[in-house]
Amino acid sequence: MSARIRIDGAPATVVDAGDRGLAYGDGLFETVLFVDGRAPLWRRHLARLALGCARLRLPAPDAAALAADCAAVTAGLPRAVVRITLTRGSGPRGYAQPAPLQPLRIVAAAAEAPLPRHWYWQGIRVRFCETRLAVQPLLAGIKHLNRLEQVLARAEWDDPAIAEGIVFDTEGRVVGATAANLFLVRDGCVSTPRVDRCGVAGVMRAELLDRLGEVRQGDIDVDELMQADEIFLSNAVRGVLLVTELGGRLWKPGPVGSRLVADLHTLGFGAAA
Amino acid sequence: MSARIRIDGAPATVVDAGDRGLAYGDGLFETVLFVDGRAPLWRRHLARLALGCARLRLPAPDAAALAADCAAVTAGLPRAVVRITLTRGSGPRGYAQPAPLQPLRIVAAAAEAPLPRHWYWQGIRVRFCETRLAVQPLLAGIKHLNRLEQVLARAEWDDPAIAEGIVFDTEGRVVGATAANLFLVRDGCVSTPRVDRCGVAGVMRAELLDRLGEVRQGDIDVDELMQADEIFLSNAVRGVLLVTELGGRLWKPGPVGSRLVADLHTLGFGAAA
Fold first, then answer.
1. Which of these CATH numbers, 3.40.50.150, 3.40.50.2300, 1.10.3720.10, 3.30.470.10, describes B5-111?
2. pLDDT tens-digit readout, B67-90
3. GO annotations under biological process (chains A, B) (predicted)?
4. CA-CA to A74 of 20 to 30 Å: which in A199, A247, B171, B185?
């Protein structure tokens, strides 16, 4: 079996204990679905990574080297989830940037863990989280390594029948789920929370914005959410999942979400156990 | 020479690439000054670490094991800075807590890098940072590994004559400096920003609160800051540093701060080059 982890382009399994990714969460990541060696959303992942690098003042990684790493770690896996992690590398103690800067690139693959089949076709049960996300425009949108808020939100439940948790920002607006963006449909109009103050600009969110055409990106409160005709979640690995239970209300799978589930299935998303 | 890094109690220099400290910043740290093998603020560091563990639902580390690690890594160093890092350890992909939980403990020492002598006795020049810190009560006070805001703030300047940067929260209140708490004196009254919505509850801050007796912990805006008779910064390794230049205003070292510098010097803080 080929090595499933490459660090800076070579097989490895460990990183320097002084790496700034570990010290400060000083870096970025992407979680990429590969189907038969191909990532359907590869260009979107690269684009978001480049955006994150610009925001954190990191040099963007070499796309060819990244692709080569991904090919090596996914070899022999028909369906794989690859995590790409970029950090500012090691340096002396303190927040100041190390000079010279030597970023670290970790590419690790695992076989995809399929979800229960009925999640895709019947929808999922989700809950509200108490954990609120801070409003921070400087870090909003990018997929950085500072994810304690998501860890705390996800720790609020351990019932495996609950697929996700809906999170709000500290000012009461819907942000999305702990590891997904959120869309809602009302009277035929699609809306999704803006991601310029809080939340992640998901690559599957970007894919859906292109597929759906007109989507309102704005502020969504709990009332608007609960009055929706359809709610669905988007994730770069899972694709689209329809919400059928939240906060005491039930929904049947709706036409907009169901269509997306089917369309993304043909792209390779949504393998079920 | 004895090893300067111990991981889970044994000499080591690397960590598993799947550690959650690296993946999500899922952990805590302390930066501790050791003088002749003794940490003057040891109990305060342990107390803050315990508070952080409770907040992040991590088991508190064994104090005796931590002390033994520190003794090992500081052996032979008259003045050392020890970084203790605790993470939630390795686990499968995703924000959900791994079960069973196997936290990771890293203890690393380096010789103290002394500051310019005049910084202690003449004071320091500091600047205002543009980077604002998010308001997040769930993470305020504890010394967690999600430090991108501090990295971005510290990246705003590289003039070595500027010792620190003053940061505000997204609502315009003074939080402190990138790696220090802030105190000000006005008409004999001492104030410091509250740390229950934003910022770190520094161990040196706690030491100063005890030493100074009556200190107001509240909201401080830029006007109150600039009208202060004295401003000084506190840090667990550097001790107290007096601010003598900020935002176009100059201060002379004042009596409250100067007294603290002298008192902390007898405790071992403030070695100068």
1. 3.30.470.10
2. 999 999 999 999 999 999 999 999
3. 4-aminobenzoate biosynthetic process; folic acid biosynthetic process
4. A199
